[in-house]
Batch of 2 targets.
Target 1
Amino acid sequence: MADTDDGTTPQLDGPIAELLLKTGRYFTPGEVSADLRTVHRRGGREGDVFYRDRWSHDKVVRSTHGVNCTGSCSWKVYVKDGIITWETQETDYPSVGPDRPEYEPRGCPRGAAFSWYTYSPTRVRYPYARGVLVEMYREAKARLGDPVEAWADIQADPERRRRYQRARGKGGLVRVNWDEAVEMIAAAHVHTIKAHGPDRVAGFSPIPAMSMVSHAAGARFIELIGGAMTSFYDWYADLPVASPQVFGDQTDVPESGDWWDASYLLMWGSNVPVTRTPDAHWMAEARYRGTKVVTVSPDYADNTKFADEWLPAQPGTDGALAMAMGHVILREFFVERHVPAFTDYVRTFTDLPFLVTLTERTDGYVPGKFVTAADLESYDGMEPGEGDEWKTVVLDEDTGDAVVPNGSLGFRHTGSGVGHWNLDLGGLRPRLSFHGDPASEGVTLLLPRFDDPEGPGVLRRGVPARKVSGRLVTTVFDLMLAQYGVGRDGLPGDWPTGYDDASQPYTPAWQEEITSVKAETVARIAHEFARNAEESGGRSMVIMGAGICQWFHGDATYRAILAMLMLTGCMGRNGGGWAHYVGQEKCRPFTGWATLAMGLDWSRPPRQMIGTAYWYTHTDQWRYDGYQADALASPLAEGHFSGMHTADVVAQSARMGWMPSYPQFDRNPMELVDEAEAAGADPKEYVAQQLRDGRLRYACEDPDAPENWPRVLTVWRANLLGSSSKGNEYFLRHLLGTDANLRAEETPEDRRPRDVVWREEAPEGKLDLVLSMDFRMTSTTLLSDVVLPAATWYEKHDLSSTDMHPYVHAFNPAIDPPWETRTDFDAFNAIARAFSRLSAKHLGVRKDLVATALQHDTPGEVAQPGGSVRDWRRDDVDPVPGKTMWGLAVVERDYAAISDKMASLGPLVDTLGLTTKAVTVKPDQEVADLAAQCGVMNTPGSPVDGRPALDTDVKMASAILALSGTTNGRLAVEGFRELERRVGRPLHHLAEGSEEKRISFADTQARPVPVITSAEWSGSETGGRRYAPFTVNVEEGKPWHTLTGRMHFFLDHDWMSDLGECLPVFRPPVDMTALFGESAVGEGDGTQITVRYLTPHSKWSIHSEYQDNLLMLSLSRGGPTLWMSPADAGRIGVRDNDWVEAVNRNGVVTCRATVSHRMPTGTAYMYHAQERTVDVPLTESTGTRGGIHNSLTRLLVKPTHLIGGYAQLSFGFNYLGPTGNQRDEVTVVRRRSQEVTY
Amino acid sequence: MKVMAQVAMVMNLDKCIGCHTCSVTCKQAWTNRPGTEYVWFNNVETRPGQGYPRTYEDQERWRGGWERTKRGRLRLKGGGRVRRLLSIFSNPKLPSLQDYYEPWTYDYDNLINAPLGDQMPVAQPRSLISGDPMKVEWSANWDDNLAGGPQLAVDDPVLKKVSDQVKLEFEQTFMFYLPRICEHCLNPSCVASCPSGAMYKRSEDGIVLVDQDACRGWRMCVTGCPYKKVYFNHRTGKAEKCTLCYPRIEVGLPTVCSETCVGRLRYLGLILYDADKVLEAAAVEDEKDLYQAQLDVLLDPNDEEVVEAARREGIAEDWISAAQRSPIHRLIKEYRVALPLHPEYRTMPMVWYIPPLSPVVDQVRDTGHDAEEAGNLFGAIDALRIPIEYLAELFTAGDTAPVDAVLRKLAAMRSYMRDVNLGRETRPEIPAGVGMTEESMHAMYRLLA
C-alpha cells in the first residue's frame, strides 16, 4: 500500500522536521505517536476541566413550549446556580411499539433556542403602562378618588381618549407596579360592563392545547364576567372549513406515528420538515419501508428534498390538480373497473348513494336538496314521523324502493332515534347509480365552472334520473360523475373525449394549463394513489397544510382532495386518509379544559365569537371591500347574495342565528333584562319583540356607532398585532386609533352595504384598553396600554398535548418567575381580585342577557330544516329565539364573587354534568376526589363555600385531567356507555379496562403519558394502536356528525348552491385585479413588478416567536426578508440582500430580498410572522416604520363560512366560522434606496 | 498491530431535514458566551453552498489538511512544520471574521425603553465586535435552502470541481443538508500543526481536544484543519473546538448533537483501528484509493486476533463489546453505506456520511417512472449525473463508483421493503443485486429506519 519514492515506510515532512519533532516529543505532556503524526494523552487533563465545568449543572426540569407550536415536545431544562442554562429534548416517551421508530427526541431549533428569552434584553421584567394614560389616570383618580370613576372620566373626554390612543405603539411605556396596573385594568373592565355591557369585553388567546391552564385561567375570567372569547382556529385560517362541511368534525387527524403505517404519502401544501419538524423523521423513515412520497408545492420546498416526486403546481391551483386526480380515480376505479372495496366503502360511509332532487331550469336541471323522509309518502312501511326532515334517503339496490337508513341527523336528537343513530345498513345495499336503471332517463345537468379567467361559466353534463315520490331525483354519485366529467353511455351533455382533452374540466390535460403540472404525471400519480389504496386497504395518506388551506377557496380545494381519499376508502384507516396539520386544535383533555376555560361550572352559556367576523367588523375592513357579496357567485345562483355587501351577509348570518356576533345588540344586555323585568316581560320574548318592532338593533348592523364598539381587549399567549392580524394596518387605524400605512380606498357608494349602516366618518380608536401579557416585546405589547410581565414556559406549571402525538405532559418551573413576572394564572387571579373589589361598589349582582348562535352537536343544528335562508327581517318568519334567531338566556352574574368563582370548581359540573359533542357525563366522583385532593373553599355564605379549590395552577391542571375522558378512564367508559345508548351499538369496549386509569398531574410531570380512547374524539388508541381519525366511525358504525351521518361530497344549503360549491369544484385564486384594482401578476416597468404574495411558515420561527431570537437570527439572515425568483429580481435590478419595498393598498413592507432559484417566477414569499420589532427601517413610501408580513394582507370573508343552523353547517367555537385567509393577495415589489434609517 | 478505540459518528444525510436543532443545542450548551459568538462547533450547510466558514473546502486557498509529496511523504498542506514555525507570527491562511461572519445583536432594549416618539420602536442590528450599527450581510448559515443561490452557490468549491454540464443542471435545483462537527480524525492535521503541543487526541476514545491551559493562541490549528472546525476564541486568545461532548461521553451519554437530532440521523459508536496503519493509509498515492485505505485501517472487532490485540492495549472488555455491537461499524464496514467526508484531505476523518438518495430520486419525475421500482431507481442513479458527481467530490475524492453503490443499496432497500409493507412475496433478487442477503437488508433497514 505504502508507495514512497524511496520504498521505505511512509514518513512526515522531511528529516529536519522529524528531528525537531523527535526532540519536541520529550517536552510534550502527551505521548507522541511513533510516526510523529499526532499526540495522544491519557489521564490528568487539567485542560479539559473547562468543558466539564461548563457541562455541570444542578438540576434538570421537564417542561415544554406553549402556544402555537404543534410539537408539544417534552424538554429537559438545565439549571445551574439558579440560572436556566440551556435545554435539550426529553427522550422518555412511551414506546409506540416494536419494529417502528420512536417519537423521541421531539424538538426543533426554535424550541432549543427558547431559554435565550429568559434573560434576554427583550424580556418584559416589570409591568408597564402607556405613560400618557398613566398620567391621566393618576390625575383623575387623585381628583375623583375612585378608580372606576377615574377611568370613566378619561373615557368621557374625547380629547384625552384620542391622545393616549394616538400614542399607541410609539414608545413611551413606563414602569408601574402590579397594584396600580391591576387596578387600572379592573377599573376599565368594571366601567365597560357598567356603561356598555359585558359583551363589549373581549379576550384573545389561542391554542389551549399547548398550555391549557394558562389559557383557561384568562378565558375563565373573561367568560365569568360575560366577555367574549374570540376564536382562533378559523381566524388563523388553520380551520379547514371542509372538515365541518364533509365530516361534521372540527378537525381530527392521525398522529405523526401513523405516517409510518402509510404506503403512499402525498404532502400537499405542507412543508413537513419546517412546520412539523419533530415529526418529519417519520417521513424519511417511512420511505425506507417502501412508502412512496410525493409533494405538491409551488417552490422547491424543504420537503421536496425527500420526495420521490415533486408536482410544482402554480400557487392556488391545487384544486384543479385534485379535481383532475379525482377524474382519473372515478374513471379508472369506478367506471372502467369495479373495485368492490371502494364501492362498499362509499356506500356505507359516504353520502354517494343518497338521493338528491333535481330542480328544473329552462335548459336543464340543477342539483337541489337531499331527499328526506318528509318528502316520501311512506317509507319502510312506516308513516312519516319525528325528525323526518333530517332523515335522508337512499334507494335499495335490490328492491328499488326508497329507504331511510339509520344514522342520519333525524335519529340523533329525537326520542325515536335512540338506538338507531348508527351506520348499520343491515341487509340494505344502497344503490350508487341509476345508470342502467330502466326506470331512469338521462337528463341534462347544469353545473357551474370557475376555471375561465374571464368569468364563471356553465357546464352541460348529464345524469341518470328517476322519479321517487313524484320528484325527479338522482344520486350524489351520479352528480359526482357529471361534475368530474366522467361520461357514461347514453347520457346527454358535453363530456371530455379523454385525459388529453384540455377543453373540458376536469381532465389531466385541462389541469395542465392551469397548474403547469404535466397531464401524464397527474394521471399516473392519481392511478398510483388509488391503486395503492386498493392494494393496501386504504393506506394512502395526504398530509395537507396551510399552503392550500389558507386560500379564500381553501375549503373547495380541500373538498377536492378529501374526495380522492373518500373514494378510495382511506378515511378512518391507520396509515390512510387526511392528515391536516395547520394549527393544533387538539386539546386532548378537551372536556376538562373547556369546562374551566368557559366557566361552564358556574354559568352557561358562554360568549364565544367567530374571530374573523369580529376583526373584519371592528377593524372596519368591511369599509374597504371593493366588491359585492355576489361577485364570487355561481352563474346558476338564485340570487341570495344579490345587492349585498359582505357586511350585510355577516349581519344576516347573525340575524338568522347562524353565527354569533358580539357586541350583541345596540344596548347593554344587562339593561335589556332590567327593561324587560320593569315591563314585566320575559326577557327573551321582550328582546324578540323589540327586534321585531325595530326598537332594538344588532350591533353588527351599525358597527361604527360608538355604542357598538368593543371596548376592552386582553391578549395573552398571543401576538395578535404582530402576527395573526390579517389587515394589520386596518387594526392600527380603526381599532387602535394610531398611525397606519393604510392606502386602500373606501368602498365606492354603489357597492356599499344594503342593510348595514354606513357612517360617513370611519371611527378611529374603538378600544378603550388594550391589555397584553407577554415575556417578550412584540408589536402587541408595543401597542398595548398595559403590558404585564409574564412568566415563561420554564417558569410555571401547565399541561400540553397535541394532535401530532398521543401523550399529555407537563410544564414545570425550572426557576421561579424572575423579576416581577407572574404566571398567567396568577396575573388573572390578581386582576379578578381587583375586579371583584371594585365590582362590589359598582356592579353587584346583575342579570345578563346572553345571545348564542345555533350550535353544532346540539338540537340547535336541527332548528332550520332544508338548508334554506329564512331571514325574519325579510322573509315571512318570526324572530323566535333558538329557532329563527339566536338562542337567548339570562345569566346572573355576581360580580363581587368573580375572583372566588375563578378559584373554585362550580356546582353546574355536578348538576348539569359535562357535555362534549352531545355526550353528557356526571363527574360526581371526580368532584369529590378533587375536593379531597385540592381542599375546599371555606367562605360561609358565599356560593363558593365547600366547592373544590382551584386556587393554584397545579390544582387547575388536576381538574382538567380529572374531568376529561382522555385522561380519566372512568369518564371515558361512562361517555361511551352514554353514546352507545344513542348509537345502539357497543362502544364502551374502546375504553373498557381503563376505568382505573386516572392520569394525575404528577404522572405528566414524570413522563409523557398516553391518553385514553374517549368519545371526545373520533379515533381509537385502544390496545396501543396509533391514532387515526374516524376509525371509530368506520369500525364501530358510529355516524359522522353530519346530515346523512356519513361523509359528505354534496352540500345542499342555499348559500353553497349560490356560490356554486355543492360539489367538489375548482376555484382559482381570487382575482385581486378585478376586485381591488391591483395590477396583474407579472406586470412591471423595470423598477417594480407585481407578484403573488405568499406568507408560508418559516424555518426560523413559530409564528412571531423566535423570529426575534438572536440564535435564530444568527442562523438566518438577521431580519425580515422577501424571497424572490432570480427572474423577478432581475427584472427590477434587485440583487440578493438588497433592501426592497413591497407595497399594495393594504400597506407597506420594507425588508431585504433573498434571491433564490428555489422560488417560482411570479411569486414572492415573505415568511410568516416577520414582525416590525427587529431590523425594520422606515419605509421609503411613507416615511414611517415598515410593516409586518400582514401589513400587505387583509380579510376576505367567504359567505359560505357563515352558514349556520343546519346540521354540520352549524356554529361551534373554532369548529365553524369564516376563515382569516390571506393567500390570494398580490403586491408590487421594488428596489428601494439602499440607505435606510430606523 | 496497535489497536486503538475511536468514538466515531455516522450521519445519514438522507434523513437530515436541515432543521439545525443540533447547531442550536450545541451552541447553547457550549459556545453561547463572549469570544465564541461566531463559533458553531456544529453547523449545518445547505449544499450546493459555500459552507461555514465560506469556501472552507477550497484548500488551494486555505491550505488545510495534508498533502502527499512527490517523494511519498505526508506533509501539512499549509507548509512543512519548520516553515510553519518560522511563520508563526504571520499566518495568512486564516479565514477572517468576515469569512465566518461578524456576529451581531440588536438594540432590543429600545423596544422596552423607547420614549414616546413618532414611530414604533425597533431593534436595530449592532455588531458584537465593534458595537456599531451594521447591515447584516453574512451569517453562519447565510445560504440556507439555496438562499442567494444564483449569486452565492456558484462559489461552492465542490460545485466548481464538477463539470460545466453539472453546473447547468444545477439550475434545475437540487439541495441537501450537510451537518458538520469536528471529524476527530485519526490523522489530525490540527494536532500536527500546533506548535505548543496543546492539541491532542485522547488515547482511549480518540477525541481530539485543545488543552486550554497549554494553548498559546498561535492559530496554526485553524489553518491546519481542512474542515475549519477549530476556532479561535477572541476573548481568551485560545483555540476551541468540538469536544465530542466528552463530559457526556465519559458518563455514558451521547453527544448533545446526537441526542437532540430530531431527524434521528446520527449514529454514535465505537470502532477499533490499527494505529500503525494510519500513516500508510493516509499516504496512498491515488486520492481515489483513500476511502478504501481508510476502511482498511478499521479492524474487525469480532476477529479474535483483533480482540486479543485490543486487550493487550488495555482496552476494556465493555469497550470491546461496544465495538462489536457498534452500529457505525456495520454502516461503515459491513454494509458500506457510510463514506468519509473529503478523504482527500488525508486526515482520516471519523465522522462518516450516508449520502442522500433523495436529490437523485426527485429527479426521477422527469423520467416518468415509479421511484419505488428498483429498476427505475437504478436507471436514475446512472442517468442523473448531477448529484452523484457532486456527492463523489464530497465523499470519495471524485470517484463515483462507491457513491453509486451506496445509493443502489438504499434504493434496493426501499424496493425490497415495499413488498414487505404491502404484504407481497419478497424478492430475494433485489438484495442479491446489490450484494446483500434478505437478512442483511432487513437488518440494515432496522438500523436506518
Target 2
Amino acid sequence: MSLSNILNNWSHYRRGAEEGGHHDYEHRWTMAINLDKCIGCNACSVACYSENNLAVVGKAKFDKGQAMHWMRIERYFDESEKEFPDSGASFLPMMCQQCGAATCEPVCPVAATYHTPDGLNAQVYNRCIGSRYCSNNCPFRVRYFNFYSYYESSWPEPLNLQLNPDITVRDKGVMEKCTFCVQRIRVAKDKAKMADRRVIDGEFTTACAQVCPTSAIVFGDTMDKDSQVAKLWKKQQVERVVTKQNKSNSELRGYRIFEELNVDPSVMYMERVRDTEI
Amino acid sequence: MIVSEKDINEQIKWAQINTDVLRSLENPRKAYWVALFICFAMFSCAVVAEVYQYQVGLGPTNLNNPHMWDMYIATFVFWIGMSHSGTLLSAILHIIHADWRKPIYRFAEAMTTFSLLTAGFFPMIHLGRVWNLYWVLPYVSDRGHWPNFRSPLAWDAFAISTYLSASMLFLFIGMIPDLAICRDNTTGWRKKLYTAISLGWTGNDRQWRTFRKTYLLMACFLIPLAVSVHSIVSSDFAVSIMPGWHITSFPPYFVAGALYSGCAAIITLFVLLRYFFRFEEYMTTAIMEKTAKLTFAIAMVWTYLNLIEFGATWYGHNMYDKELLIAKATGPYAWVFWTMIFCGMVVPFALAVQKFRRHMPTMFVVSLFLNLSMYFERWMIVAPTLSMSHQSHQWDVMWPSIVQWAIVFGSFGWFGILFLIFVKVFPSISMYEVKEMVYHRKREAELEGASAATNKPNLEGAS
C-alpha cells in the first residue's frame, strides 16, 4: 500500500463489491461441503492439526476455550426426548470462510490480515501484534489466538520431527486461522508456472478435503469454470456477492452461512437431508 | 426551603488565597504517606501481573476464543471516559463563562491528564505482542509498511496521543501564573523547579494578553478533540458487525457516559480534597451543588441514550441484537446489568434532592455508586457481546482471572500515585482564577449595592 499506488488507482480502489470490487482475481479458492455426507469423524480436524502445525493445547486449556483447531466439527444436538447417544446430532465442519468482504480485514490496526489476489484472507504472522480485533469481528469465530507459547509443550522431542517444514510454528501473541492450506496452493501454483500452464483442478487439495472419508469436502478454484467446485456452486445456484440467493428451485440445498451479514463467504454448505423430523 | 448562598466568600483576601493554597503543598501528613504507600502497593500488584503475563502470554487472563477482549478494554474505556470531565470543566465551562468552575477545574484537569496516562496502558497491556506496539504508528519504514488507516484501533492511537499531549499542554498553560506565585514563595528545590517551569512569568500586561489568547485557543482546540476521542473509542465497537456493538448511537452514548463518569469522579475527588486540604473556603457547598446539578443533567442524558438503545434494539427485530439484550437482562451477567441500571439510572436521582447535594459524605458515596455503574456499563458493552455473538457454537460465559483483576486494580493505584504527587507539587486550586472570581463577585456586589441605593427610592415612588 504505497501512496502513489492509491493516488494512481483511486477510482479502481473505490469500486464496491457489487461492481465487481477492485480485485482482479487470478484464482478464487472455494469450498463446497456436503453436510449430508459428513459423518462427524473429525478426520479433517486431525489432518489440519498435522498439516498446519497446530498446537495441541491439552485438556485444561481446551476447556478454557483456548484450543487451536482451525478446522472444527461443530455438533448441534437435536431437541429430542432421548438421551445423548440416541438423540440425533448435526455436524458442521467450520473453518475460516475466506470471505470476499471479510470483516476481519479492515479492523486490523497493522494490516496483518489482508486480501490476497487469490481471494484468500491471508494472515501475516510476523506483522500481527495481537490486538485480536479481527477475531472479535469474525461472525464465524474461526480465528485462533496463541495464548501461550506451545512449541515446547506441544511438540516435545521427538515430536518436533513431525512438524510440517513448509509452514511456521507460531509463537505466543499471534492470531492464526485456516489458510485453505496456502502452502499447498503455493506449490501447485509454482509448479503450474514452471510448466507454463494453469493449475489443474484436482492437482492438489487441502488437507481436510484430502482425508475426508466420504468426500464431503470439495476444494477448488471457481475461476476455473470446469472445476468440480465451480460446477457444484453452479448446480446449487449459489452466487457470490449477493445478499440473498435467488434460486429457481427451492429444493436446492446449497447455502452460505450468515448470508444476511453480507460478508460473502467462500464456503458453500449443502444442507443435510433427513428422512425424519428433527 | 431553598438555601441560596454564594459560590465563594468575596471578602476573602488575596494573600489569604495564596497562603491557603500554598499550605496544601507543604508538610505532607502521615495520611498522605499512607495513601501513597497503598497506591504504590496496588500498582505493584499490576506490575507483577503484567510481568507474568508478558512472560507467559495472554493465557492466564482467562481470555479465550469468543472472549478476545474483556476487562482490559472495559477499563481502557472507563479511564478514557474519566478524562472527559476535566475538559468539560476547564474548557467548555470556560467558554461559556461559568466562573464557578474556577476553584475546582485544576484538579479536574489533572485528573484528565492522569486518567489518560492510565488509559494509555491498557491497549498496550492487552496486546499479544506488546513489544511491536510501535507498528500502530505511521513511521516511515524502508519496507513501505503503514498501519491500516481503516482500523479504529489505529485511529485510537492517533486520537489518544493527540488528546493526551493537548490536555497536558492545557494543564500546564493554565498553571503558569500559579507556578510564578509558587516560585515567589518557596525555597530550595521547589524554587528551582518553579523558576524553570514558570517560564519567566512576571505578570505584565503583555504576558497576560498572550496568556489569555493561548488559553482560549487551547480551550477551543480541546473541546472538539474531547468529543472526537470518545467517538473514536466508541468506533472500536460501532465499526464492528457484532450484535450489541454495531450501534449507530454509540458515539454520543459514549461521550455522555464519559462526561457522566468524569463528573462523578470530580465529585469524589472534590470531597476528598476539601476534607484533607481543608479547602472549605474554596470548594464550597454551593459549588458542589452546581457540580451535582451538572452531573444529574448528564446522568439523564446518559439514561435517555441507554433507553433509546434498548428501545431501538427491541423494536428493531434484529434477531442477534434482541436475543443478546434479553440475555444481558436475564443471563449469567444479569446482576452486572441490573446493578448498572440501578446505580446509573436510579441513584442519580439522589442528586435532585438539595439536602443530599449539600451533604458531602452522601455525595461521596453517591459518586462512587455512579462510577461503579459506569464501570459495569463498559464491561457490559465488551463482554456479553463476545459471549453471545452470531455463531451459537461458540457461546460461552467467561469471568476474568486474577491476572486481569490485578492489572485493573493496579491501574487505580497508578492513578492514585500520579494524583497524590500532583497535589503536593502543583497547586490543586487555581490561585489566580480564584482571585479573579473573588474580584468579580466583589465588584458585582458593590455595583448591586450602589444601584440598589440609587434605585430604591424611585421604585418606591413608582409603586
